[in-house]
Amino acid sequence: MGKNTNQLCLFKEISGKKVHVDFGGELSSDSGILLIREFIEKQDIVDKIVRLLPDHRNQGYIQHRTKELLTQRVLQIIAGYEDGNDCNSLRNDPAFKTGCNKTLDTDDALASQSTMCRFEHRIDPRTLILLSRL
């Protein structure tokens, strides 16, 4: 005990801010999400999928970009939150917000259950074929 094991700058910066793990302040039981985010970004998985997903929404009214929605959904599923209705309780979770490259203080909440449901239903049979080839 008594040994300081703080490891600063372990994670990639978000909006020019350093991300480090500490105890206190905003808490989450899902801090492993930060490691998963690092892996997903290094593998370029989300970007490859986003390029295949249709987005016919009016760009002027969009609050959550496709990449953010997909990242949020992937992280939630990996963390064991399979149901889209978990989005409502996790929208302001510090680990998930950080995992989706949002800052805790300045950025809005993540997508709600209804937004995630609409996102999931945008995928048509043609897109499923493209995703299976990827």
List the helices and strands and how they pair.
Layout: E1 11-14, E2 17-19, H1 33-43, H2 45-50, H3 66-78, H4 87-90, H5 94-99, H6 113-120, H7 125-133
Structure in words:
The protein is mainly alpha-helical and 134 residues long. Helices cover 43% and strands 5% of the residues. It has helices at 33-43, 45-50, 66-78, 87-90, 94-99, 113-120, 125-133, and strands spanning 11-14, 17-19. β1 (11-14) and β2 (17-19) form a beta hairpin. The longest helix is centred in the middle third of the chain and has 13 residues, at 66-78.
- How widely separated are the two ends? 48 Å
Q: Specify the number of helices.
A: 7
Estimated radius of gyration: 16 Å
How many strands? 2
Question: Uncertain runs with pLDDT below 50, 5 residues or more?
Answer: 1-9
Report the biggest beta sheet as strand number plus sense, adding barrel if it closes: 2 strands, antiparallel
What structural keywords apply?
134 residues, mainly alpha, 7 helices, 2 strands, globular
Offer a concise description of the structure.
The chain is mainly alpha-helical. Helix content is 43%, strand content 5%.
